[in-house]
Amino acid sequence: MLIHIHPQNPQHRQIKTVVESLERGGIIIYPTDTIYGIGCDIFNHKAIEKICRIKQVDPQKAQLSFICSDLSDLSKYARQLPTPIYRLLKRYLPGPYTFILPASKEVPKILKSKKDTIGLRVPDHPITQAIVSALGRPILSASLPGDLVESYTDPESIYEAFKNQVDIIIDGGAGGVTPSTIVDFTNEEPLLIRKGLGEWDE
Fold first, then answer.
1. Mean pLDDT confidence for 138-143
2. What b/e sequence results for 29-50 when a residue is b if at least 16 CB atoms lie within 10 Å of its CB, and e otherwise?
3. CATH number at residue 168
């Protein structure tokens, strides 16, 4: 199903349709402040496993991250953030960043890396924010499978490619081609893992 949602003022009725699908274990493709992503409810193991099959990756090796609604939500899924790190995150979020942090007990086992870490995002995008807020818990954040990033900017092309594999594809306008900037906070000093859309000069 292709659903058109206004990128600046998401319609409540459309968001409700998406959330009801997620609650049933549905898989969605949705816009973020970087590129279009594929996701599901982080507490639905079967949906996570299905996404891993679509991406042809092992859940334990997939380095999956997820989207929180805000910084306080993020701190629920990361183990005790020292004040300096919390301040740093506050400066950059919401925004086009994935921060790798020590995972708390709230994080489903299937999403933790072997190092007991998790990638967390708080995108600056009204549609993503509306979905996570209405659902009341995070959604999975994974890139679409394959290397054809340029063709994944157009929701109609995404629909043609994935309409038989997912439940809902959200048309929120043209997507970007640059992924998020990834910063690892699990060591003493922040480590830039991937330079993406977000500027990083720490």
1. 93
2. bbbbbbbbbbbbbbebbebbeb
3. 3.90.870.10
